[in-house]
Amino acid sequence: xxxxxxxxxxxxxxxxxxxxxxxxxxxxxxxxxxxxxxxxxxxxxxxxxxxxxxxxxxxxxxxxxxxxxxxxxxxxxxxxxxxxxxxxxxxxxxxxxxxxxxxxxxxxxxxxxxxxxxxxxxxxxxxxxxxxxxxxxxxxxxxxxxxxxxxxxxxxxxxxxxxxxxxxxxxxxxxxxxxxxxxxxxxxxxxxxxxxxxxxxxxxxxxxxxxxxxxxxxxxxxxxxxxxxxxxxxxxxxxxxxxxxxxxxxxxxxxxxxxxxxxxxxxxxxxxxxxxxxxxxxxxxxxxxxxxxxxxxxxxxxxxxxxxxxxxxxxxxxxxxxxxxxxxxxxxxxxxxxxxxxxxxxxxxxxxxxxxxxxxxxxxxxxxxxxxxxxxxxxxxxxxxxxxxxxxxxxxxxxxxxxxxxxxxxxxxxxxxxxxxxxxxxxxxxxxxxxxxxxxxxxxxxxxxxxxxxxxxxxxxxxxxxxxxxxxxxxxxxxxxxxxxxxxxxxxxxxxxxxxxxxxxxxxxxxxxxxxxxxxxxxxxxxxxxxxxxxxxxxxxxxxxxxxxxxxxxxxxxxxxxxxxxxxxxxxxxxxxxxxxxxxxxxxxxxxxxxxxxxxxxxxxxxxxxxxxxxxxxxxxxxxxxxxxxxxxxxxxxxxxxxxxxxxxxxxxxxxxxxxxxxxxxxxxxxxxxxxxxxxxxxxxxxxxxxxxxxxxxxxxx
Amino acid sequence: xxxxxxxxxxxxxxxxxxxxxxxxxxxxxxxxxxxxxxxxxxxxxxxxxxxxxxxxxxxxxxxxxxxxxxxxxxxxxxxxx
Lengths: 702, 81
Known about the structure:
The complex is a heterodimer of chains A (about 700) and B (about 80). Chain A is of the alpha/beta class and about 700 residues long.
């Protein structure tokens, strides 16, 4: 096997990147200092320049990373990437053993997420993966209506599996340490049985070729601990999601290529659409609860970056391989959902401050990755502070001076030139990656995938305009997220909306406060200094119209006119996921719990579960059964229903009582509904005769 | 069993419900059980009929005993701190 000497290359590239970013920042700071008028001196001006330096470094990092990616792609790909180096390795052997395909879920849309899973393993089966795949659905859902549906869907999926592959469903009763705890729980129980696991998110899609390539790279490179693919966005149905998808597909290419080129074997794990070498992951990547205060106490919310840092510290490599095609995920369908997700990520990333400062022997590149993760969200309050300070300087300066002194307010010929240069530099830094991406797509002959060159350019302009309008909204929202996180305001994971549902009322509810605050600030500016009002409008107007904008962006309509590659040439795994039929047989007009109680089939698989119970637990369950039998499902809370469903004997008892209920009781009414909607008695059954009578699926009890 | 009896109606509904999701062999057993109670156990109560019906579902020869994945009991290394 060829020895990959990627470290010296990585050091050289990172050194060059640092030089370019810092050089640009020095230039920007110099231009700003020269464009500030003499009236702007003292600590506010120093603070302004300091903030500018941080923020300019931040956007410069994005620009130069994109440029690295552009250069790499123009060179035909990175010669030091894992896939390029190992593709020349001779004698690749086929993978022996079983692969774990792991999908943690928590209150996700069941049909959509398990439909995705079905599409992935069907792809594998079609590609000849026989007797090699164990699929694990690891549920942290607590709502019985959700997890009973998950169970029913998994039962059907399992019955549908062929070729010796298996599907297991496990639900944790206690969601200890959230997603990382869920994966750790899986690893403790079954991890030692597998050499590799492929982690999927609820919205993940991976083609069989992508999984094969990941396994092959792992086999060829024993030092690789994690190989991360760069997921493309897919299945966008709303305007917002489609614009995100377009941006991801059009500009994401050079960004991920640049990131991979700079990080090489010190890349990061993104939490899904990746393959993990299980043994070192189990040995080195356990995450303890944080022992600090406030936000910095409790379970780690954002685990992936830390896990890759720990893997790196243990001497294993983490690779980002954007060249592996066939890896997809979905975008949040609306702006509101995007910001809700950001709120969660913001808390998780800010928590990284503790390991960043306290964990020993982490690789420098992984420390930088943790820092950039923090800056992702901290940048927003810094921008807000920069704008506020700029306004303050304008108010405190000479009469008639403008805000954003470095960029706009100029008083001398030298200052005018420096200000103009700074504006030019900022515009290039911000828009440069988009232009580079367009050039790259054109040179690669990929513009047809976006509906042609002109259409791609027009859509880029449209997407850029929407991004510019959304930028102040994101800035205000992220600033609120950071403040909320630092104040440790509680946050509850309720699953992600992946379907785009939501209306004006929801949008108003979400954006009412930011809009009101913005209106207040605008009124104050107009009152104190009307000449500043025009400069405040670009920031305040988007926030004021955020509810309407959200509703418009969550519509479908014109979004489909933004052409993306998957629209031009269909991808089988996406098509399969999109046309997946409804999983889990559901009796008409019954809730999942009512079905679990009334269905003879549910009663049947309950017999196979263990669990005798005694003493006070038995009395408690009996009391729940009696109450539910008399007063119906509405008399129990979600957790009580879950408790009942976890005890076969209690459910058996409730099953018999419900079927014998009086016609005017809640269960009698449910049976009447069922009778009405079930249709006439038929001699033929609805079940496919080719399907096993009772599938060997496993409802693994907690 | 009286054909206008609620018990019989419930038993038939039970059969229809089972037919909705059960396989053909299970339904065949279930049909036999309902017929048996209909013609032989005229005064049977639902509390006796339902368990018998359930037992007939449980007699399904195609029924597999589910085997959970074998536990391997691994350890997670907490070397992060």
